[in-house]
Amino acid sequence: MLGVVSISSAQINRVGVKSEWATNVDNSSISLYEYEKLVPREAFQSIDNPRFYNEESAQEEYSEEANVVVVAAGREFKAYPLDFLMFHQVINDRIGGMPIAITYCPLTDAVEVYERRFQYKGVQRELTLSPSGMIRKSNIILYDEQSESWWQQYNGKSYTGAFKGHELVKYPSLRITMGQYYENYKYGLVMKFNERDELLPYGKNPYYRYDNVLVEKPLYLNYMPSERLMPMERIVAVELLNDHVIYPLEDVQKRGVINDKPLDMYIAVFYDNASTSMLEGRDIKSNKKIGSVAVYSTFHDGQSLTFTKEGNLFKDEKTQSVWNFSGRCIEGEMKGQQLKMLNFSQNFSFPELDFYPNSLIYNINW
Fold first, then answer.
1. Could you report how far apart the first and last alpha carbons of the chain are, in Å?
2. Neighbour tally for 151: CB within 10 Å
3. How many CB atoms within 10 Å of residue 254?
4. Interatomic CA distance for residues 257 and 245, integer angstroms
5. Which H or E run contains 252?
6. Are strands 360-361 and 243-248 parallel, antiparallel or unpaired?
7. In angstroms, rounded to a whole number, what is the distance separating the alpha carbons of residues 108 and 85?
8. CB 3.0-4.6 Å disulfide test: which of 77, 228, 285, 299 passes with 188?
9. Domain covering 234-361: architecture
10. How confident is the prediction along the chain (366 residues), in pLDDT tens digits per residue?
11. What is the DSSP string of 38-53?
């Protein structure tokens, strides 16, 4: 899907500003040379205000193995198939009345969900985000249709345009399978299959064998990445206040659950071996299992909880209550209670170490 980057002598032409953009490029905190235009801005079309199936209709259209992104607000649950995000990169929707954008960058394998509402000069603004066809640091650049400011997908920051210096608020989400979704979220909704573009090969991976830990340099990265971890190693990056902690996915897979206290905050990283890689072979449903991760605060109801994994469920040692992958207690003293999900991302290591170079890295021997 991605084209060849053309080189121009002028910054403004290099990213096609004169012909394609009304962006205020004079208001930029970085050099425009950091942006690379790979495809025209209309090459990827966002999905706006999608419609949804109930459980019965969704199960007729999607297999249990389909990878989805899940967001929740109270008792409202929505799932968005990653097959759609592979080719559309942005879905603009609402959850619990909050306007959100579900975004996906295949170069970093990062799913990030953002609130589209924020304060600007004392006025509440609501944005509609779309893919720009540009990248920076091998991560896609989004733009808002209101001002055409440019936003980094991985961290939600705008470096260029009217909203330069603003940062979108992240909204917690999960990457799981359709089967996991209906095990954990009864009465959840799923985006309708007929939102698809008939010309796009949903379910296929256009980045053949990109998911390879031995790759030394990610696609379109024009400098060598950090050596703290292998750049294509899979990680779980947890946001704690203003700091970030990295858990290598291999360590999470080995343990099934990690109980930790980074920066004096009690957390647990849950793992379930279900989701497949979006970026290995051509046929996504046949790709290797990479699994799903959820991260929760374990300081709950005035006490710190420690978890063990039993099958695809989790038991806290203090009350012996049983919790599912979505952080809801389904059996025992705390039945019906919900753990607080933290902001985290599950992706390759290089964008995390690039955008957050001071991230702490978990050692399994801590």
1. 43
2. 26
3. 11
4. 16
5. helix 249-255
6. parallel
7. 13
8. 77
9. 3-layer Sandwich (2.102)
10. 444 333 333 344 566 555 689 999 999 999 999 999 999 998 999 999 999 999 888 888 899 999 999 999 999 999 999 999 999 999 999 999 999 999 999 999 999 999 999 888 889 999 999 999 999 999 999 999 999 999 999 999 999 999 999 999 999 999 999 999 999 998 999 999 777 788 999 999 999 999 999 999 999 999 999 999 999 999 999 999 889 999 999 999 999 999 999 999 999 999 999 999 999 999 999 999 999 999 999 999 999 999 999 999 999 999 999 999 999 999 999 999 999 999 999 999 999 999 999 999 998 654
11. -S-TTSS--EES--EE
Q: How far apart are CA 259 and CA 103, in angstroms?
A: 29
Return the sign of the alpha-carbon dihedral for residues 41, 135, 36, 120. positive
Q: Which residues contact 226 (CB under 8 A, 6 or more apart)?
A: 349, 350, 353, 354, 357
Number of residues assigned to the chain: 366
Pair 154, 139: CB distance under 8 Å: yes
Return d(Cα 356, Cα 366) in angstroms, integer. Answer: 22
pTM of the model: 0.94
Residue 79 pairs in a beta bridge with 70, 190
